[in-house]
């Protein structure tokens, strides 16, 4: 006897059969071939997709990205009738961007820069579409393909700048509203208490979500480029200004109702409700200027085949099997290269110690507020205090790494001078030369510390994390193992001691800082 089949199963089967019957034979084969290449790319870059998916789901700043795949699917489906008229053709020039995107992924992976490796992973999928389906299909889907870039979580690098912008907006509004206030970096002191423009208050989550939404609206609701530019400008400026007003509102309410009430009010207002109000206000202003119907989206480049240069490009076809074989070969090469390079580790001494420095004496390390920089995965760590005859004191922290990889990155978020889950807060940037990155830190609203962070690898001494990552990437690409050293020279602000002067005096005493670091870690 035949097993019973439910009516629901029949309906699903009939729907799928009808859908497949409506897909031209050429498209069925081409989509299957694209699926093969995509699966191979996803297998190679699986770690990056796992990290991205974790951010989309668990970090509120990136929750909006969960909608991006559905938006891309809707955009492609909206032009299905136009796409059915096109014939997919494999196109060999697309092997260049595919190889380039995979190389970008390799660079990001080896350097430990997630944004770069994730960008390479996404662009590889886009390039595979051009390779397997051809330039005509790709240009017809130009915007959906470009919108896939929003799958990459970005924005963390904007937080310090947005904190400072928000703080300046808040102090201006606070003084305008008649409330006496003093600003120090991202801290604002008022009669009701001390307020911090923390990372969560920077407004970065709303800014990047608004950029993604604004890009979609400018495409689907406007045809005039002037109107698109005007809307996108407003979409970027409005959340920044609105976030400053929200932060000021919290301080203003706290003056009469108290900090506890103001914080409770802020928690109710702050969130996606606040974002929804900002979006509604933006759309209400621009609604009357919409000049494109979102239901009429279709081929993004309907007349591109009329151009001779495109006809010449489109003629550079390749057999589908050869295209897939070439793509898989690139994927294998990049995968093997990544595995070999990722296993490199430099040889290190068994132990290291802080040296004697002329004019300075090592003394007991006794900070006013406990401070010990984070250096997860470091093979060696040193922390000590020096004092000179003038009474100036500096704290020196050194961490040595045999390699830079996940779990042991000197420049990763949460590493270095600003210690997570402690009383220390970032206050403001400190001006330095290019060999160090300066930060002012604040604890308990009164204890200030200046910290200058440097990275040393090979002959490079820099205060820029990107400089360190590029150097590490170059060494690994050429299979050259180099150790990395993290150096933080800091000083507390106290009576009779200016941290910047104390650190400058210490640096003059050690002379060539790069060579001094190399001697400590046994490289000279």
Automatic annotation (TrEMBL):
It is a multi-pass membrane protein. Keywords: Cell membrane, Hydrolase, Membrane, Protease, Transmembrane, Transmembrane helix. It is found in: Cell membrane. Its main location: membrane. Residues 327-508 form the Methanolan biosynthesis EpsI domain. It comes from the Bacteria. Signal peptide: none annotated. InterPro entries: EpsH-like, Exo/Archaeosortase_dom, Exosortase, Exosortase-1, Methanolan_biosynth_EpsI. The chain crosses the membrane at residues 26-44, 56-77, 89-107, 204-222, 229-249, 269-290, 318-340. GO terms for biological process: proteolysis. GO terms for cellular component: plasma membrane. The keyword Membrane applies. The keyword Lyase does not apply. One of its GO terms (molecular function) is peptidase activity. Its EC number is 3.4.22.-. This is Exosortase A.
């Amino acid at each position: 006897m035949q097993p019973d089949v439910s009516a629901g199963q029949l309906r699903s089967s009939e729907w799928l059969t009808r859908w497949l019957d409506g897909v031209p034979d050429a498209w069925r084969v081409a989509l299957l071939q694209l699926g093969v290449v995509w699966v191979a790319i996803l297998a190679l870059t699986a770690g990056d997709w796992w990290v991205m998916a974790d951010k989309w789901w668990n970090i509120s700043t990136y929750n909006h990205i969960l909608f991006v795949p559905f938006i891309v699917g809707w955009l492609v489906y909206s032009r299905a009738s136009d796409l059915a008229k096109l014939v997919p053709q494999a196109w060999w020039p697309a092997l260049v961007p595919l190889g380039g995107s995979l190389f970008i992924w390799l660079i990001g992976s080896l350097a430990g820069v997630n944004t770069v490796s994730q960008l390479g992973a996404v662009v590889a999928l886009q390039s595979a579409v051009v390779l397997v389906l051809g330039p005509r299909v790709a240009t017809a889907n130009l915007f959906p393909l470009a919108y896939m870039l929003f799958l990459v979580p970005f924005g963390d690098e904007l937080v310090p700048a947005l904190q400072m912008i928000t703080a300046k907006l808040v102090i201006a509004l606070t003084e305008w509203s008649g409330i006496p206030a003093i600003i120090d970096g991202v801290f604002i002191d008022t009669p009701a208490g001390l307020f911090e423009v923390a990372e969560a208050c920077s407004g970065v989550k709303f800014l990047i979500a608004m950029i993604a939404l604004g890009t979609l609206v400018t495409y689907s609701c406007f045809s005039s480029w002037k109107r698109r530019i005007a809307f996108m400008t407003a979409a970027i400026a409005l959340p920044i200004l609105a976030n400053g007003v929200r932060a000021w509102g919290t301080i203003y309410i706290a003056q009469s109702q108290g900090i506890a009430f103001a914080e409770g009010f802020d928690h109710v207002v702050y969130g996606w409700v606040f974002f929804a109000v900002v979006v509604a206000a933006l759309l209400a202003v621009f609604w009357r200027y919409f000049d494109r119907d979102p239901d009429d989206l279709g081929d993004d480049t309907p007349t591109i085949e009329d151009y001779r240069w495109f006809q010449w490009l489109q003629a550079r076809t390749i057999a589908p099997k050869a295209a897939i074989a070439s793509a898989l070969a690139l994927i294998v090469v990049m995968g093997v290269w990544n595995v070999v390079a990722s296993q490199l580790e430099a040889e290190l001494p068994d132990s290291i110690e802080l040296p004697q420095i002329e004019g300075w004496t090592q003394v007991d390390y006794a900070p006013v507020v406990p401070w010990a920089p984070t250096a997860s995965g470091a093979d060696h760590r040193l922390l000590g205090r020096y004092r000179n005859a003038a009474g100036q004191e500096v704290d020196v922290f050194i961490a040595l790494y045999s390699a830079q990889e996940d779990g042991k990155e000197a420049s990763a978020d949460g590493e270095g001078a600003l210690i997570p889950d402690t009383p220390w807060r970032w206050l403001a940037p400190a001006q330095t030369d290019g060999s160090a990155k300066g930060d002012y830190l604040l604890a308990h609203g009164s204890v200030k510390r200046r910290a200058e962070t440097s990275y040393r690898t090979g002959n490079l001494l820099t205060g820029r994390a990107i400089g360190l990552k590029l150097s590490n990437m170059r060494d690994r690409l050429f299979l050259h193992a180099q150790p990395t050293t993290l150096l933080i020279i800091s000083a507390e602000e106290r009576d009779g001691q200016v941290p910047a002067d104390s650190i400058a005096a210490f640096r003059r005493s050690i002379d060539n800082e790069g060579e001094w670091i190399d001697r400590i870690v046994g490289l000279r």
